[in-house]
Every structure is written in structure tokens, then in C-alpha cells.
Amino acid sequence: MPPKDDVREEKPTHFTWTQLLVAVSVSLCSFCTGFCGAYTSPALPSMKGKDGKFLITPQQESWVGGLMPLACLVGGILGGLLIMYIGRKWTIMVTAPPFIIGWLLIGTATVIGMVLAGRAFCGLAVGLATMVLPVYLGETLHPQVRGSLGLMPTLLGNGGLLLCYAFGSFLNWYLLAFAGAIFCIPFIILMLFVPETPRYLLSRGKTEQAQKSLVWLRGKNGDIDAEMKELASTQGETANAKSTYGDMFKKRNRKPILISLGLMLFQQVSGINVVIFYTQQIFVDAGSTIEPAIATVIVGVVNFVATLIATAVIDRIGRKVLLYISDITMIITLLTLAIYFLGKHKGWDLSGVGWLPLLAAGFYVLGFSVGFGPIPWLMMGEIMPASVRAPAASVATAFNWLCTFIVTKTFVDMISLINSYGAFSVYCVFCIVALVFVIFFVPETKGKSLEQIEAELTGGKE
Fold first, then answer.
1. Residue 184 to residue 56: CA distance in whole angstroms
2. Which terminus of the chain has a smaller tally of CB atoms within 10 A, N or C?
């Protein structure tokens, strides 16, 4: 009987419905980012086809896909300032106006410039969201559920991507944009009911509000006093923005920041956004026997299911094991795509394996989505030291989107220089290097509080 009583007493501190509400509210914002990221794949063929209202040059087409990551970079930098001055919660709320303005500009576009402007506004919102969501969840969720609930933004983000693919199969490009604007409404409403993070409130000297926020998150049976003492011992961020950014370069902070930057780099140079942004075009170029729009939806389903699997197991098997599985899967599938496109270039008879690009891309997305997709963002919110969490997360987010922009914009040029098989071979080599990086440098954070992680990575000394 005593062991059973102990389990009942600990459970509320691990999971509460209020933490689930927080995760869902935040993740509906991530749903919007996924919808936005997938938009170009179904929209560009429609924009260039019978539903087109204007001519699009190949260079303009590349900017429709490539401009959003560049705007995300700006959003990531801006977000670092916003989460320090207006807080985590209200920075999430601030993403709503640019999202809605961007989608309405695209939906009502009569010239390509309006589409580009809309993509820039949406990109700004996505940059803000991808920076603040991991920080918000990292600071509100209990360590025992931080992995599973912390992956919910990626899960719903992939849900947004899948829904965009599905809607794009029967909606034209401007109706799809209006759908994107409508999907912004639910997260705006739900975010009104969740609190600011206790860590942010404590860093601003609002101890009473921080305690109320923690009680709301952990429930009345949670060990609030012990957690408040642990939070107070870190003293949160400094309110001085200049000294906060300067603290990033202190020796104690370099290791966690460099690990986060490394994960962001390898996430993008694995080539994922090439697959996401140009999914339909990849199948067309490959001469696949499967309808491109259907293939795109199937890839989106795989993406969603894989993230669902990762969400279910991450708090049991840990971050590093999932990263290993992810990386090895991507190496094998990228090599398969490289060989397929090499055969196509050499004129091999591939009529009997027209399904191979879909199979390889599907398993590639599955591999990416169980590890290198969600975990770099999750770990960004976990391993950044409290004193530099806002600016460091801002830099990591901006760096991620800079890498995204470079990879997306150079894909077409890479194909013209080294062909498709060469491009996929390059991404494969990057994944091999990433595996070495994870083995030797990435720590396991499963079940540890943010304060424990910080002490291990920084040595607990200034």
C-alpha cells in the first residue's frame, strides 16, 4: 500500500491538465507555422497553372519559397528582444497579426509582389514562434513530461503541414491562403487563458505572480515550495539587455550555446526543407508513377505519425537514442535518393521502381521527424542557461533560419551544378558528420530540471 500511495502523490507534480492546456495552446501557434512552411508545395503549381493571376519567373518562384526563411531570421532576432521585455506569453500573441496580414496579402494578391510581401509577414511570425515556443514550454512544463508535451508543437506543426498538403489537393493557391488566416484564430483565443512563465515573472521580481503561475501549472498538490526555491537560486535573466547579450560570450555559456547551434545547423543541412518546400517538384522530376499531390499528402502523413511516435517515447528512451535513429535513417534514405537520381541521369531503366522516391522520401521524413526535426528545438529550450536564455534562443533561431534560407536557395543552383544525385549526396555526408556530433557532444536531458542541466553544462560557476 505505501508504494501505491507514493505514486498517487507524485503523479500531479508530473502531469496536470493545465500543463496539457498550455502545450495545446502553444502548439496551435505551431500548427500555423507548419501550414505556412508547407504552403509553397501545393500553391506554386496552382499559381503557375490555370488559377494563376500573373506570370511568375523561375527566379520569382525561388523567392516565394526562399523569402520566408529569410524573414524568419529577422523574426528570430526580434523575438529575443520581445521575450525579454514583454514576456514569453505576449511574444507568442504578437505572432498573430503578421500571420493574418501575410495570409490576407497572399489571398488577395494581384501581382507577385503581394505574394512576396505576404510570405515575408508570415516568415516574421514563424521566426518569432519558433524562437519563443520552446522557451515558453521549457519554462512551464515539469521535467518528467517536458519531452512528450514539449514535442507537441512539432506534432501539431506537422499536422498543419499535413492539412496544408491535403487542402492544397482541392483548393487553389489563394483559397489556401485564406484557410491559413482562419487557422490563426484558435491559438489566439486559447493563449488568453494561460499564464506567463514562472521563471520570467521571477526574473522581473514578481515573486507572488510567479508562485501563482506555478500553482496553476502544477496543481494544488504539486511541490511548489521546492520548485520555487530551485528557480530562485538561478535568479533568471538579468533585466539589462546589453549585459544579457554580452553574457553569451562568457566561457560558462559557450558549450550549451554551441551544442544548440550545432543541432540547428545539422537539422537544416540534412536537406529537410528542400523535401518539404519542393515535395511535388521532386516527384515530378523523378518521373514517379504516383500522382505528385497524392505523394505529398502521404509524405505529410508519415511526418505526422513519426512525430506522434517520438512524442510517445521520448521521455522513456531519451533524446540521444532518437537522434541516433533519426540520423541513421536519413543517411540511408538520402543515399537511396542519390542513387535513384544518378540512375535517372545515366539513363537507367527505372520504370519498375517509380515508387522508390516516395518510399525513400517517406522514410527520410519519418527519420527526420522522430529526432532531428523536433529535438533541436526542444533542447534549445532545455540547455540554454537562464541568464542568457532569451538572447541565446534568439541567436539559435536566427541561425537555424539562416541555414534554412541558404539550403533552400542553393538547392536549384546545386542541381544545375552537380545534379539532383549530387545534392542528395552532399546532404547525406552532412548527416554522417551530424551523427559524430551527437555521439560526442550532445548531452542527455531526459528527466532533468533546467537547473540540473545548466549546472552540468556550465559547471555551475560564473
1. 28
2. N
Q: What is the DSSP letter of 448?
A: -
d(CA 357, CA 363): 10
Alpha-carbon distance 115 to 132, whole Å? 26
Q: Is residue 73 exposed (0-12), middle (13-18) or buried (19+ Cβ within 10 Å)?
A: buried
Tabulate helix, strand, coil % of the chain (nearest 5): 80, 0, 20
Residue 39: closest CA among 96, 99, 97: 99
> For position 420, what pLDDT does the model report?
83
Cell numbers 525579454: residue: 84
Can you give the C-alpha Rg of the chain in angstroms?
A: 22
Q: What residue type is 31 in one-letter code?
A: F
Q: How confident is the model at residue 332 (pLDDT cuts 50, 70, 90)?
A: very high
- The residue behind cell 529535438 is 375
Q: Please check whether residue 149 is in contact with residue 20, taking contact to mean a CB–CB distance below 8 angstroms.
A: yes
Q: With the C-alpha atoms ordered 103, 392, 402, 153, is the resulting torsion angle positive or negative?
A: negative
- The mean predicted confidence, pLDDT, of the chain is 87
- The string of pLDDT tens digits covering residues 45-97 is 889 888 888 888 888 887 887 788 889 999 999 998 999 899 999 999 999 99
The answer to whether the beta carbons of residues 92 and 132 sit under 8 Å apart is: yes
| Neighbouring C-alpha atoms within 13 Å toward the C-beta of 428 | 16
Asked if residue 196 lies in contact with residue 88, where contact means CB atoms within 8 angstroms, the answer is yes
Query: Residue ranges of the alpha helices (H) in 270-352?
Result: 272-277, 279-286, 292-317, 319-346
User: Is 14 in contact with 144 (CB distance < 8 Å)?
Assistant: yes
pLDDT digits (tens, 9 = 90+) for 125-175: 999 999 999 999 999 998 888 888 999 998 999 899 889 988 988 999 999
* Residues 405-446: tens digit of each pLDDT: 888 778 778 888 998 889 899 999 999 999 999 999 999 999
